[in-house]
Amino acid sequence: MKIKNIYLNKKTPVISIAIALLCVIITLISQLVPSTFMAFTFSYPVKYPWQLLTYVFLQGIPGELLPPDFPYSSMELTIGHLGYNLLLILPFGILVEKVIGSKRFLALFASTWIVDVTVNFIMGMIYTEDGDSFAVSGASGLAFSFMPVGIFILFVMGKRYGFGKLFMQVLFYLLMGIALPTAVISLMPNIADVAGIPSMIIHLIALAIGVVFAFICKGKIACFFNNTNVKYSV
To answer: Residues 46-55: contacts with CB within 8 Å, 24+ apart?
Structure first.
């Protein structure tokens, strides 16, 4: 089996595609109507109930809300943030959803989201004690949970069909090329004057959830490769 056979099978990764589309739509709305940005982002205390979900799909920031001396333009920050997170959601999300099924993939997303929101509330209470503001947006805090499961799937493929053949596939290099620098950059506090300690905590927790989920789904992942000629259901 080749990696492309997983991506091109008939099962439609509806959750991954929906997440990616929502990221584009919510981000575009916030750029076209900057006043909506604060209504979409997670800020503590939360003003609108939908902020608990929309912050995930909100990437970047409108130029009107950036400080004058900020080292990046709104366009650079938004395109970089959106593009980077789509490179997590699409390759890893689709791979994981195709193998473990949409229901389990949704469970992974929902579990990470619940933990993420809880941690955001806790950090919001901590960081606002001294009068500081606290706001969070972006999908990487959830998409990071996709990476360990995706890498485990690739490991199972390599073990079953040969690591040599797996390494020869260009897509494998693409996935690793995304995963490794993303992990390094996002886990370093204050990288490029954008991320910080709260971001590092959120990404580490998402990675841990992904590792746990990979262990929980290892039987289903093995089942997928044991029944490659049979329609796989959840």
So the answer is: 52/117, 53/113, 54/26, 55/136, 55/137, 55/138
